[in-house]
Amino acid sequence: MKWISDLIDLIFPRYCSVCGELLSPQERDICVSCLFSMPRIEKIHLEEIEKTFWGKAKIERATSYMYYKKGSPYNNLIHNLKYKNHPEVGERLAYTAATELAGKGFFNSIDLIVPLPLSKAKRRKRGYNQCDYIAAGISRATGIAIARDIVSRIKSNETQTHKNREERWKNVEGIFEVRKPSKAEGRHILLVDDILTTGATLQCCAAALQEAAGCKISIFTLGYTYNGI
Ligand SMILES: [Zn+2]
User: Fold this and answer.
1) Residue 30 above 80 pLDDT?
2) Between the N and C ends of the chain, which has fewer C-beta atoms within 10 Å?
3) Ligand 1: distance of its center to the CA of 169 in Å?
């Protein structure tokens, strides 16, 4: 009912996470103008993202929705998802991204969506796994099922932020365990995460899943960052 949502907007005005302007009743998280100007990953950059994974694990397809550049106001969207207790932002962003990607055939032959698992300690601290919400948005847009019980994180890797590429690799070895390999066998799995940086954690999870016979992996993240940005 429109009058109810209008009333709610009046009492609790909502603002664009990027520019701070008041949102209209039809807009969520981001205004139309900021959505239009979002630094999206265009097709031409797909190869660059896919290169991140070369030689470590075999990845079928990999893409991200937008650039995650240092200091960009667009990062607020992902900060709200990860640190500000607004996981629903991730669901809506992923839904929008997946609706666009579905038209490009990105989800062809994908059987299952697997959110990158968090360690128990981190999940307890945050209260939710942001990747679950990203997976939910993709599932709503595509109808592909989500599987959360196939792989789990058995070790919590310390923060990756101040490590170089080699150190990050050492840091993520052996942190995942595939609990139900039979569910991964012969399946094409879409592994989802919030931000792609070096891809080290995602690749370790992909490599663990690929111990199941015939398991193929593709990757989706909301944000993409790269060296120097
Ligand atoms: Zn805006």
Assistant:
1) yes
2) N
3) 37
